[in-house]
Amino acid sequence: MLILSYKGGVYGEFSKSLEESLSGTNWSVSATLLPDSPAIAGPPPDLIITVGVEALKRAWAKGDPTPIVATLLPKLSYERIVTQARRGTPKITAIFLDQPPARQAVFLRQLLPGQKPAGMLLSSETKHLSSQYRHAFANSNLTLESEESEESERSETLLPALNALLGRSAFLLAIPDSTIYQRTNIKAILITAFRHQKPVIGYSPAFVNAGALAALHTTPAQIARQTADMIVSNGTNLPPPAGPNQFAIAINPTVAQALGLNISDESAIRRAMLADREFR
Amino acid sequence: MNRLTLRHRLLFLTLLPSALIAIALVAYFTYSGIKTLEGELRAKGQATVRYLAPISEYGIIAGQIESLHGLAQATVQESGVKAAIIVNQKGRTIAVSGRVSLAADQLRQTVNSPGQIAETEQWIAFAAPVKRSTSETDQLFEGDAPPAATPEIIGHVFVEFDKAELVNKQRQLLQRGLTIVLVGMLLLAALAIAMADNLARPVMRLVHAVHGMSSGNLHTRVPAVSSGELGVLENGFNEMATHLEEVHHSMQSRIEEATAQLAFQARHDALTGLLNRREFEHLLEKALAGVQAGGDEFAVLFLDLDRFKQVNDTCGYLAGDELLRQMALLFQGRLREDDTLARLGGDEFSIMLPSCSAPRALQVAEDICGLAAAYRFIWQDKVFAIGASIGVAAVTRKVRNINEIVAAADAACHRAKESGRNRVCEQEATHNPDRRQESSNWASRIASALAEEKLLIEALPLRALQQATPRHLVELTARLNEPGQPPVALAALTDAAERYDLAQSIDQRLIDTAIAAQSQAKRHQKTLHCLVPLSRASLASAETIDYLARSLASQNLTGKGLCFIFSEDALTHLASQAMEFSRRVRQLGCQIGLDDFGGGLSSFSHLRSVCPSYVKLSRSLTREMGGNRASTALLRAVQEITADQQIQSIAEGVDDQESIEQLRNLGIDYAQGKAVAPSEPFEVWLEGAVMRSR
After folding, report:
1. A79 to chain B: nearest residue by CA?
2. Domain range holding B245?
3. Which ipTM did the prediction report?
4. pTM reported for the whole predicted model
5. Which fold has domain A2-97+219-234?
6. In this complex, is the C-beta atom of A203 within 8 Å of any C-beta atom belonging to chain B?
7. Each residue of B64-78: pLDDT tens digit?
8. Could you tell me how many CB contacts below 8 A there are between chain A and chain B?
9. What is A101-216+247-279's CATH superfamily?
10. CA angle, corner B438, sides to B435 and B440, nearest 5?
11. E strands within A89-158?
């Protein structure tokens, strides 16, 4: 059973990709859209795969004992939902969208070689991640400058923090944080960074389109494949939640040009990253 | 409209529609221009806030007051922008530039879309919300944050525009529009005036020409320069004018001729070509003025033809006219060049003798009188003796006006006429205003004389020269006796009376007197013979005979004692009437006598036709009796002839005893005159001479 948060777009892509990956196995996919979730005909499903935050919210709230695989959601959202009280605790695991800090560090090194102080804006929700990043960055010969922003949804506090941060760092690394990187804030953040002539490294292709220099991300199709692999290999015996195995790179050459940066193309960076990993 | 001239109508027709169109067009374009300007301002305002809002977004978000100030200032730099205000989400002004007119609460309001928010006469304000722009993010990372439905409004921008510039521009537009209208109208007016003049001028020329023509300027022409109908009109007018002028000129010359003729006629007598009375009086005035100014004295002759009326009555007016012409020529031939001969009317002439003394004037008058007396007028087979009674008036400095001259000359002439015609009388011109008027009014004088018994019947007794006779023979005559006037003799009276058809009345008076005398004589067994002179009017009228017959019958008398006398020339010219009259009178027992016998050559033929019982010898026969042998011979011949026919002859005007003897010797039967007996009132004579005789 597949529950999609919304119809079309990335969800459709995921659904299609999952069906393709599971074809030939004894798993069949029965997709349903979020509003219709209560009415599911036939025998109860063996496994529920939620796509997106909303899907998980509903499935979790429903309280079915069916094991759940949450996909296409940030780690923070997953944690927020799962920690909420529930009758009975079914088996649940997740495949997050968040890239592991180590991969980020490798990516940054390849993308912006020699640019050491990386800046990160942290909110109260994400400040606990700073140590992980700092550690990962150190391995990659990077330093981390971070700035915390209280009430970060307000630009009055966010932008001064950003300004302060950018003064110290060579670029801004954005991580999924719904309190900071909102659709209303992104432009201001991007403009501020641009004022400082500092690139922004985002976490999704949309971020790149909006004006970030580059993003390390995983496509829904990749996640779907990873999900399929996981189901096929483990069945209903769910492994713990994990990050994405595969990744993609998005680069905005216009921004690179505007900032006067000479950036290698996506495939070159990807190759270099894989080499770096293997080297490790 | 109907009272306008052609020019005004043309102007009206040309100017009014174009003026209306021009005004409408300019008004429309000005209005739309003004609207466009206003629309432009609004569009500009909208655009300005629309652009200002997004670029202020980041400044508001980032709290970059300086950059917002810069934006506001840059906005104010725009033409027409009065003020630019940027407020934040809470309505607090964070950047402002220029002079702000919007109130604080207006700045705090929430505006959802760009637009105009306020407008006054001086300014207009626009506002736009500054919306937080959103960027596409990955839905996957949205987490549990709700998707933003509408963009958050994080502030507002306000821009105030000064309308002064708009008003200025609008005013300029209006002024330009008005100027265009004005200039256009002026051009149009000039054009219209030119057109109207061009059209109206030929018509006005025609109008002036018509005025000129009607005010008598016949040589008025219009220049035939127009084409079309106007040209035809102009040519037509000119042709008409030429024709009129020609006609006028020919008329004028005819009128002048006629006027000259009239003027001549007004001053001259048509018949004789002599000056007429008016002109003569005019000359008299001038001459009198000359005398009064110290010039030479002059004399005036009034001349009345004798026996003219007989010619006129006998032979018709043609003969009379001819006589007048001949007499005019006759007199003219005898006068000096300076002398003026005029015909005053009828048979009256007048002669002015300038620089002529009274004796000399008398001489001239006598000369002319003789000339007239000697003249014989011959008409067909008839011969007339003409005479002239002439009055002379010498004009001295004492004369005050010409009326005195005329009156004097007239009076003198009358005196000449009354005292027997064919003679000259003189009267000094003095101030005597009544005279002329009274003496000239014959008609009323005679009428009143008859009515008031002022006509005095006189007796002219006759004396038998050859043998004594018991019967009394008397001739009746009459005299007009008026108080303060000289008496008028019967001849003059009859002359005048004949003109007014009163002669018969006088004759009847004479007949009455004679019949009454006969009746009285018969009662006293006396024999009385009355010679009654009759006028020509009585001779020609049958009434006279009837009246006579009635009168005789009423008195129971025969006509034996009556003898009617008429003049020889009456007989000459009224021969048949005279013969008829004689016949009928004789039937009544009356007798016929001829007056003035022997004066004309035809006298003798009348003896046979009328068979008169008496003839009165012409004075021309008896006047020069004695001294002139030829006259005496003629008298004797007449006497012999009459005696042979047993006609009694009478000599009149015998004033001395010697003449009586001569006449007696010649065998004349009767004599009459002062030597026989003076004339006396008939009644007196009848009582004295007849009734008391034995």
Report:
1. B143
2. 218-267
3. 0.72
4. 0.48
5. Rossmann fold (3.40.50)
6. yes
7. 888 889 999 999 998
8. 89
9. Response regulator (3.40.50.2300)
10. 100
11. 92-96, 117-122, 143-148
